[in-house]
Amino acid sequence: MRRQGGAGTIAALLLCCVFGVTALMALTAGAGIYRQVAQRVEQSGERRVGLTYLAAKVRSFDQEGAVLTGTFGDGDALYLLQDIDGLTYETILYVHDGWLRELLCERGWELEPEDGQTITQAQGLEAELTEDGMLRLAYTDGDGRTETAALYVRSGG
Predict the structure, then answer these.
(1) Spatial distance between the Cα atoms of 129 and 156, rounded to a whole number of angstroms
(2) Is the residue at 37 inside a domain?
(3) Coil, strand or helix: which one is 16?
(4) Which domain holds residue 103?
(5) Per-residue confidence (pLDDT) for residue 38, from 0 to 100
(6) How does pLDDT run across 7-27, given as a tens digit for each residue?
């Protein structure tokens, strides 16, 4: 049996090292790309969640006289009314202290804007309900981007 020279062993070891380094570089590049994609998806979701949440709540309360606009705290608010066991409750959606908030209480209760449950970061909300039942929303997210929506409140039109 003949022994191989040291050059063949070194070449095989060098080839294994090159393969290992290449695989490590590919994994590192893949992880970086994954991180960027995940950040974009998260930012996109955060950007849409506020306005989507508002629109979904309005649609779920689409009954005669159940969707109103007004003010709460320092800005505009949506008032969504519902009757439960003879009592009228209101869900108030508003922006306060950098957050879109939701507050559920019996109609007429005097509560503070800080009492609401935080939904997502936001900078502003403008709400206008026209006589023909069109609800116009302008929502400013936590990064300062403003998105608008026009919802036809079917029961009010």
Answers:
(1) 10
(2) no
(3) helix
(4) 42-156
(5) 86
(6) 788 888 999 999 999 999 999
